[in-house]
Each structure stands twice: as C-alpha cells, then as structure tokens.
Amino acid sequence: MKKQEYDKKIILYALIPGLGQFKNGQKEKGAIFLTIFGLFCLESAFFGINALQELITLGSEPGIDNSMFLMVRGTLQLLITLIFVGFYVSQIRDAIKVNKNKTIGLPIATGFTGIKGSLATHGFPYLLTFPAYILMIFTIVLPVLVTLFMAFTNYDFNHIPPAALIDWIGIQNFKDMFFLSSYRSTFMAVFSWTLIWTLIASTLQIILGVFTATVAHQDWIKGKRIFGIIFLLPWAVPAFVTIMSFSNIFNDSAGAINVQIIPLLNKLLPFVDLSAINWMTDPFWTKVALIMIQGWLGFPYIYVLVTGILQSISDDLYEAATIDGASPLQKFNNITLPAILSVAAPTFVTQYTFNFNNFSIIYLFNEGGPGDVGGGAGNTDILISWIYKLTTNTTPQYGLASAVTLLISAIVIAVSLLVFKKTNAFKMD
Questions:
Q1: 3-class SS at 153?
Q2: CA of 226: how far to CAs of 17, 230, 233, 298, in Å?
Q3: What residues does the ABC transmembrane type-1 domain cover (predicted)?
C-alpha cells in the first residue's frame, strides 16, 4: 500500500500555531490556535520567563525574596509551559493529518460547525475530562512537583524564607539520609520498623477478615446477621475515637488491660502467672499493641469485601468437591481462596500501601514513642510520622523530609505496580 503523502511545506507553516490550519483552509480552527499561541506569548513575556528564572535562582535578596513563593510560581509556570508544548506538538500533528486527508481528496471540516462536529465525534470524551485534568494539575501535580523540588534544596531551620534564601544543593539530602551517621541510623531503624509494621499489621487484618467472612458464610452458622453486626462495629466507630480509646485501655498503670483483664486471667488460669505489661513505655509491647489495634480496625473492611465474593461462588463447586472427597481445607485452598484473590488482590495490595503510610494510629496511640532512635524519630515512628516530626519540631528539616517523602512514594509505587503485574490485577479479558 502506497504511503499517504502530504505537502512538506505544511510543517513550516505549522511551526507557528494556527498557520498550518489556515493553510489547510480551516480558518476558524487556525484563529483559535493562533489566539492560544498569542496568549501564551503574552503570559511568558509578562510573567513566565521571569518565573522560570526565579525558579532557577530562588531569589537573590534575603528578607525581600521568598524562595518558597518563587518555587511555587516557577513550578506553576513550568507546568503551563509543558501543557503548551503538548498543545504545540498536537497542532503540528493535526496540520499534517488534515493535509494528508486533503491530499487524497477527503472532505475537510471547516467553520465552527466543523469544529463542533469534530468535538462531538472524536473529542467528546476529552472535552468531558478536560476540567478534571486541569483540576488534577493544580491540586495533585503542582504540590507533588514542589515537594520533589524541595528534596533538592537546603530548606531547613537555617534557611526559612523570607528571612533567608533557599538554595539548590542537588542530591545532598539523599546522601545525608544514607551516609550521614546520625540520619542513616535513624532512617534504617524507622524504615525497618515500617516494613515490619506494614507486613504484619496488614497481613493480620486480611487473615482476620478472610477467616471471619469464611466462617460466617458456612451453612451451619446460626445468627449470621448478629455476627455481621458485631464484625462491623470496629468499622462503624470513627478510627481516631477507637485509637484514643485503646490508648487509654493500654495505659500501663490505669488501663483496663493491666488493671482488669490480666488479673482476671490470673484467676481463671492459676497455673499461668501473668504480670502487668508496659504497653506504653516498652517499645516492643507498644509495637505489639499497635499491630493488634490495626488488626481490629482493618479486618471489617476485608470481611465485607470477602463476604460479597463468597456469595458469588457457585455451590455446585463445593458439592462437586464434597463428592470427590475433598476436605474443608482443600475446598478452601482450591475453590474459596483462588476466588477471593482473583477479585480482591488489588484491594489487599492497597491495605499494605495504606498501612505503609498509616500516620493516624502511630501518632494518636503514643505519638511514635516511647523513647527515640535519634533524628527526632521515636521507637514506633514509621516513615510518614517521622516526616511529620521532621517538619514540626523546633529544628525543622523540610528538605530532608521531602527526600524521605520521595523515597516513600517510589517504594509504594514500585511495589504496587510489581504486585499488580504479578497478580494480573487489572488484566481485562
């Protein structure tokens, strides 16, 4: 098949947005594109070029220039420029495509009626999603980019604008995180506990949710609605209320665990000598308490999800397995569990990513304590709560906190994508 040709001169015209469309006879579209180009040129002349220069320098006069404001303005201008570059490339491709159709004699849409028709047939989905994309740029992309840029600056308690200027320092914050002894030991301690916390707490709530849903689904269970209500109670109460309540329950001297439950167990089990546990002052037992609390808070959601999945499994499969002599464990391993994972695998992954950044339970229960491991982090702080402390203590380290934030994002995104790929979580059949 002969390759579709076009007038090579159209590329020269399209170098200026709108002229390529004029050359193709689409005057109205050309006028719109040329107007957009003109507005961008005016914006660049009066604001854009200066904003990009300030993004590079981050100011030159302490007390007058606010480096953070300049960074935000420059980042915003960078986004506007990238959007225009995308528009610029698109209008060149549009001019070439239309010229190709014109060369082989296909009808060309002209006038505002043609633009309206083109939007109705090909551009309608983009027209509907355009406002969402614009909102996403300013509410998600802009803050993320500013955080990314902050990770490469010396923004700390010695460089707080406008009293002092912020400077670009490259990857120094990442070097400090991994090679500076004070921060390296803190990072490794916090990071290792974050991994342990994420794996154990998330796995516990998933196991509890699957177990309770599977047991409650059995035909021989009576009063299923009552069990359903009981299992949903932890989900019905606001999480912060539950966490604060458990903080009191696990109190070393006056909490219900040490004052009532442990003495009761000693009476019921005289051959077992249980003593009061330092839940709030012993790092090990504080971690155990946190994991148990998260299991309590997280399993109802898994229970509801798995209950819905179990109701969709055909009883014929279990009847056939019974005829073949399968045990309850074999039925679960070969019928129930695969059905659950095929549907709920993405949700299970989100439980791990959520707990990796679960700030509320760590901070509300014991503020990341007890004690500390250096660098402003407590013994039970995870990365996200350490970031909070890095930015709110008396000597804030905003640049380092941004570097840790980027590391968290990279870990969560990489692990999520890997698991989604391995489990074919979003594969469309």
A1: strand
A2: 67, 6, 11, 19
A3: 191-419
Residue 155 to residue 376: CA distance in whole angstroms = 17
- CA of 284: how far to CAs of 13, 81, 370, in Å? 71, 52, 10
User: How far, in whole angstroms, is CA 162 from its chain's centroid?
Assistant: 31
CB-CB contact of 152 with 406 (8 Å): no
Range 294-323 average pLDDT: 91
Q: Which residues pair with 153 in a beta bridge?
A: 168
pLDDT of residue 224: 73
Assign 396 to helix, strand or coil. coil
Distances (CA, A) of 162 to 58, 150, 157, 393: 11, 16, 12, 19
Question: How many other CB atoms are there within 10 angstroms of residue 254's CB atom?
Answer: 9
**Buried (b) or exposed (e) across 162-187, using 16+ Cβ within 10 A?**
eebbbeebeebbbebbeebeebbebb
pLDDT band at 298 (very low <50, low <70, confident <90, very high): very high
Rounded distance, CA 209 to CA 123, Å? 45
Residue with the bigger pLDDT between 44 and 221: it is: 44
Q: Which among 255, 280, 251, 276 is positioned nearest to 265, based on CA atoms? A: 276
pLDDT over threshold 60, residue 4? no
Burial class from Cβ neighbours inside 10 Å (0-12, 13-18, 19+) for residue 218 reads exposed
pLDDT for residue 198 is more than 80:
yes
Determine the Cα–Cα distance for residues 330 and 325; give it in Å rounded to an integer.
10
Task: For residue 402, give the nearest of 153, 191, 161 by alpha carbon.
Answer: 153
Residue-wise DSSP of 83-96: HHHHHHHHHHHHHH
Which superfamily does CATH assign the domain made up of 175-423 to?
MetI-like (1.10.3720.10)
Select the more confidently predicted residue: 3 or 395: 395
CA distance linking residue 266 with residue 268, whole number of Å:
6
Tokens of 315: 């009883």
Residue 1 has pLDDT above 60, yes or no: no
Domain ranges of the chain: 9-150, 175-423
Burial class (CB in 10 A: 0-12, 13-18, 19+), 209: buried
Q: Is the peptide bond before 263 cis (omega within 30 degrees of 0)?
A: no
Q: Are 394 and 401 in contact (CB under 8 A)?
A: no
213: nearest Cα among 337, 354, 297, 329:
337
